[in-house]
Amino acid sequence: MSSQDIPEENLPAAQDTAHGAVKVADEKNPFADPGLPPHEHRIQDVDERAAKRSERAVALLFTLSMLATVGFIASFVAIPVEKIVYIFPLGHIGALNFALGVTLGIALFAIGAGAVHWARTLMSDEELTDERHAIEAPQELRSKVMDDFRQGAKESQLGRRKLIRTTMFGALTLVPLSGVVLLRELGPLPETKLRHTLWGKGKLLVNMNTNEPLRPSDLITGSLTFAKPEGLEEDEHGFQNEIAKAALMLVRIKPDDIKDKRTMEWGHEGILAYSKICTHVGCPISLYEQQTHHVLCPCHQSTFDLADGARVIFGPAGHALPQLRIGVNDEGYLEALGDFDEPVGPAFWERG
Amino acid sequence: MKKLSARRRHPLAALVVLLLALACTGGLYAVFAPADKAQADETAQSLTIEEGKKLYAVGCASCHGTGGQGTSDGPSLVGVGAAAVDFQVSTGRMPAATSQAAQAPVKPAVYTQAEIDQLAAYIASLGAGPAVPTEEQYGPQGADIAKGGELFRNNCAQCHNFTGKGGALTHGKYAPTLEDVAPKHIYEAMLTGPQNMPSFPDSTLSEQNKKDIIAYLGEVNTDQSESPGGMSLGGLGPVSEGLFGWIFGLGGLIAVAVWVAARTAKAKKS
């Protein structure tokens, strides 16, 4: 709607006296406050038909919100949880989630949109000026407050009754101790738990896929296998805590490709066992490239060379992946020859 | 003898002779035929290998060596087995355009299935290796999808993402998406460990385990896969979800803020 459609008598006076009382800068005062620009009325302020339209639009948004809420309740009651529908471009998604999300979204958005439209078109948009006042209280108010305080202190007899004063300070000092004592629950200190895993001398290496102990012949060159220590069962209480430290990856590399003497000796015919926990911040790390013998951590791209003692060749990790010393027992199964000789996973304060 | 000779013109003589001849032929066939067939099979097999050898000499020998022994441009193929050949050639990874690329990508297959079988037979004849799996091994019958999910997350998800969407590795290498990869090829890849993928032989990941994993992928990684929580955003995890939140979530808030603060239409032009 443009100004041409509005009857002449409805238009406000060209120069509003309340606003735009502009002080003109002159030689004496070159930076005079120009004041607020003249207020301009909205279409709704001068045309009742436009105001009615805005009112209807706001009411429509609020009604839409009501209907959406009813729809939310109806969907919750009527749609079964497991129902799947195809909606372009979302794909095959849960009908209930979709219906609840859409209806609740409309219900909330329509309330907000209605309120904003109301404020923008119908509520008063007159600019107001409110001058600042001094923050300091008047002198007589300040002296009254001080007098009241002194009188209160005197009437409470705090200065005279020393027993009350002392015990009160004692009580107030001790109360925060409850909070301090609760901090004990953050402990106890882990002691040597971070330095030891379930691996130990003679523990068999059990395949995590089949739950069977592994033989050297099971592992072909280029293969990757995950193992857990014998006796640790997945349904056991504390399994996650233990496997988080003991997780082991087994690779088999052609003995000619192994660059480090100790790495070779700690393995068995090219079968090498390394901790699966990244030494940076402890992500499970097993993105193994069998041709380069590199292992990549998905979190921060630390890269380790398994053929060279899992040396860090890229990324933020601070030290090599710990290698587990393995051998073969009398029955031909792979076994650990001890625990890791250093703590697995990320560094910690006392690691050294 | 005279008696027989005298009856040789009997009207039924021809019929008797015919029956005798038929019986002889049938009997002889029954005795000799299996041997012939086996011989024919053997001949066909050696013919297949011969054909494969010819194809190999033309398409593969420049990188993998004339006898499959490998060169500086390509690894030895002795002992990789028919499964590796079937995987590499029917997914179009081989023949590779160059040996300098980080890894050979999937592309349309150059050879027909018959030619691939011939190549596979030739490579298999160089040294024992895994055979091409059968439908029974990779089909969905008798698979435990939940177990497959567990196995997939333990063995495969670190590189291929938890629903097989793929992911990046070092120096331009990557784990490809497993969407729309034929079950046979997934099986062969696990068995043989193509390129930088480690292998998962039957001794550490049993046939049943592999079947379970394939069934899991069939459930979570197809056009028909259900995503009850809403839009899967590519199934890539926090990266795409965060990007969506920043662009559409914050973008929507900014749009609303602009609308709230925008000037309303005035009654007269200023």
UniProtKB/TrEMBL annotation, chain A:
Give the molecular function GO annotations: 2 iron, 2 sulfur cluster binding; metal ion binding; monooxygenase activity; oxidoreductase activity, acting on paired donors, with incorporation or reduction of molecular oxygen
Q: Show the taxonomic lineage.
A: Bacteria, Bacillati, Actinomycetota, Actinomycetes, Kitasatosporales
Q: What kind of membrane protein is this, topologically?
A: Multi-pass membrane protein
UniProt-recorded name of the protein? Cytochrome bc1 complex Rieske iron-sulfur subunit
GO CC annotation: plasma membrane
Q: Which residues form the Rieske domain?
A: 245-335
Q: Where are the transmembrane segments?
A: 58-81, 93-116, 163-183
| CDD domains assigned to the protein according to its UniProt record, in alphabetical order | Rieske
Q: Does the keyword Electron transport apply?
A: yes
The record's note on quaternary structure and interaction partners says: The cytochrome bc1 complex is composed of a cytochrome b (QcrB), the Rieske iron-sulfur protein (QcrA) and a diheme cytochrome c (QcrC) subunit.
- Keywords on record: 2Fe-2S, Cell membrane, Disulfide bond, Electron transport, Iron, Iron-sulfur, Membrane, Metal-binding, Oxidoreductase, Respiratory chain, Transmembrane, Transmembrane helix, Transport
Q: Which PROSITE patterns match?
A: RIESKE (PS51296)
Source domain of life: Bacteria
The similarity comment for this entry is: Belongs to the Rieske iron-sulfur protein family.
A Pfam family cross-referenced in the UniProt record is: QcrA_N
User: What InterPro entries does the record point to?
Assistant: QcrA_N (IPR045603), Rieske_2Fe-2S (IPR017941), Rieske_2Fe-2S_sf (IPR036922), Rieske_Fe-S_prot (IPR014349)
Matching entries from Gene3D superfamilies are given as: Rieske [2Fe-2S] iron-sulphur domain
